[in-house]
Amino acid sequence: MSIISNGIVLFILVVIAAISGYKLRALTLSGAIATIIVGLATLLAFGAQGLLLMGTFFVTSNFWSKFKADKKKSVEDKIKKSGARDAVQVIANGGVPGIISLLFLLFQENFLLYMFISSLATANSDTWASEIGSISKSKPVHILSFSKVDAGTSGAMSFLGTISALCGAFLIGIISHYLWNEVTFQLGLAIGIVGFIGNLIDTLLGATVQVTYTCPNCGLNTEKTNHCGQSTMYKSGYRFLNNDTVNFLSIALGSLLILLFTM
């Protein structure tokens, strides 16, 4: 098959994956469309290898989000969004890799490849930390005060979540070593470290500047603007820095950190 034919087949697979995500209620309709757009950008820039790495992130993220979902009800009460991912959530996690893919199409520089991989390592690390850490039997601690807080609290860390974050980041780094000749084993490890640091940046931003609200009815601190059927009250942070914005920023910063190892 020609390169064009291979590309068409791969794009069809992206569309099928997005439709399947929609049918399985892992994605909303807008989320499925955003997934196709990000997948196309990745395919054009990095080919099958890029799609495989992007797919690793999306598939494992969806798996862990559904894993023991019944035990995450209290966490879902705190976070702004749960369940099927919409376009905003897809862009929050896949927007940076998508943008880097477009830049790679223009400039064809290896450092953009490393940034692309590092952005996925950060996104995977953060997702594994939050999804797996939320089922920890022990309460997490706040990254600044080290006091115990409820699961789902912005800026919280648990031992299980931290180990999961490390595994999620290094999974992307090691896989990338086997997908690209340009990624040495040492660089793959560096990408894993950078991805984990990106997750820590996300946690720190969540603890310091991310917006939080309080429910006037039950007193719950939450990311939601509505709870118990009524509007929540502003508590702290910047209103424009919700969880999606913080995810996007931390992934962007994580992608830039790899330049310290490669430039």
TrEMBL record:
Keywords: Membrane, Transmembrane, Transmembrane helix. GO terms for cellular component: membrane. InterPro entries: DUF92_TMEM19. Its main location: membrane. The keyword Transmembrane helix applies. Belongs to the TMEM19 family. This is DUF92 domain-containing protein.
